[in-house]
Specification:
The chain has helices at 3-20, 26-33, 37-62, 67-87, 91-118, 125-154, 156-177, 191-197, 201-222, 224-232, 239-260, 265-286, 290-318, 325-350, 357-386. By secondary structure, it is mainly α.
């Protein structure tokens, strides 16, 4: 595996830390900037919305740029807005930096996925995708808890400084490791042609399934703290342990999927989705039992990110004639789920359905994902008959 692929994973680690770290910093931000917790929470929503909108827009803007230039530009903007965010005393400016940072992150993600796949042989595509996505799982295990710890020790601004500083080695490494110039496989087709290619039913259904799987994942992940403290009975000190356990499972799932998905992607997706639906239901039923809860958190993390990684690889397989825009649509689908899942879980909690309710929502979303996969199989069968 080329060293440049691991460099891309390092940059994604820094950006993934930024995306998720605010969950442990909201009280400090609200107090320092004199805003409500709800307003501080909008900083997370703004980032998610920026990722969804920004992925296709930034891919369109940078589709003909040399990949190293595009990666350096997006990462440079990401570093700059975190410096501004660390320095500002204005909530409005901080909110703007989250939106701009998300746009830059979305652009980087889209180009990074295409770049990683272009640097490896066809039989290594899933593994390369896993290395890049693995940056997010490492952020869950290490980056997010570290950001929360920094916020507790030296204030929320220190976490922003840390993200900027961690990104600097990635900038240097990109300069050295990623080839410059326009790649041989740079797009020769128009943006309109790529967008038409992305309108195929099989691809759209795959993106929908991906969004539902990620929605189920982040619905429960966002509300693990009240689940394990109010239902399982763990003390507050166990919360970082449970979150890290989910992250460890995620990293294991991504790594395993990277080694298996190139050979049998369909089987891996089907088995993973079925196991996820059963696993979320099992967690909702057994959340009061500590051992069962811990085991299921680990397994669900592995299944969720292993399946998600394989779905990303599948998007590129279904859109070979949309090499730049496919990554952006996969990024957007991922973040639609990341935004919608916590919102739906919050609605369930707000309706008084109990602390297990977000997990049941995750199970329901996975049932919808399985229905989408069934529709996808039907469309694939019709296409085979037509041929």
């Amino acid at each position: 595996m080329p060293i440049a692929v691991y460099v891309l994973g390092l940059a994604v680690f820094a950006q993934g830390t930024s995306e998720f770290m605010l969950s442990g910093l909201l009280s400090g931000i609200a107090g320092d900037l004199d805003v409500s917790l709800g307003a501080a929470g909008l900083l997370t929503s703004a980032f998610a919305v920026g990722m969804v909108i920004g992925a296709p827009l930034t891919a369109l803007v940078g589709r003909t740029w040399p990949r190293r230039r595009a990666l350096l530009f997006f990462l440079g903007v990401f570093v700059a807005v975190h410096v501004v965010g660390a320095l500002t005393s204005s909530y409005g400016v901080l909110l703007a930096t989250r939106v701009v940072g998300a746009l830059a992150n979305a652009g980087f993600w889209a180009v990074a996925l295409v770049t990683a796949l272009a640097m490896v042989a066809p039989h290594q595509r899933a593994r390369a995708t896993a290395v890049v996505v693995g940056g997010v799982t490492v952020a869950c295990v290490v980056g997010v808890p570290a950001g929360a710890a920094l916020g507790e020790l030296w204030g929320w601004r220190s976490a922003f400084w840390a993200v900027a500083l961690v990104s600097v080695p990635a900038v240097v490494a990109l300069l050295v490791a990623v080839p410059g110039g326009r790649p041989d496989d740079a797009p020769q087709v128009s943006a309109e042609s790529e967008l038409r290619a992305l309108a195929r039913p099989r691809l759209l259904l795959t993106l929908l399934v991906m969004a539902l799987v990620q929605g189920a994942t982040f619905c429960t992940f966002s509300y693990l703290e009240p689940l394990v403290t109010r239902v399982t009975g763990f003390g507050a000190g166990w919360v970082p342990v449970v979150l890290a356990l989910f992250g460890v499972g995620s990293f294991a799932g991504v790594t395993l999927a990277g080694r298996l998905a190139d050979a049998r992607p369909g089987a891996l997706i089907g088995i993973g989705m079925s196991a996820l639906a059963a696993g979320w239901a099992a967690l909702a039923l057994t959340a009061a039992h500590p051992v069962a809860a811990l085991v299921l958190v680990l397994l669900q993390g592995a299944l969720a990110f292993g399946t998600g990684t394989t779905l990303i690889t599948r998007v590129f397989h279904l859109a070979p004639d949309a090499p730049t825009m496919a990554g952006s649509f996969a990024t957007a689908a991922f973040n639609v789920g990341a935004a919608a899942g916590p919102w739906l879980g919050g609605l369930a909690l707000g309706a008084g359905l109990g602390f297990r309710s977000p997990v049941w929502v995750s199970a329901l979303l996975m049932c919808l994902a399985l229905a989408g996969a069934g529709a996808l199989a039907a469309v694939r069968g019709q296409a085979a008959v037509a041929e």
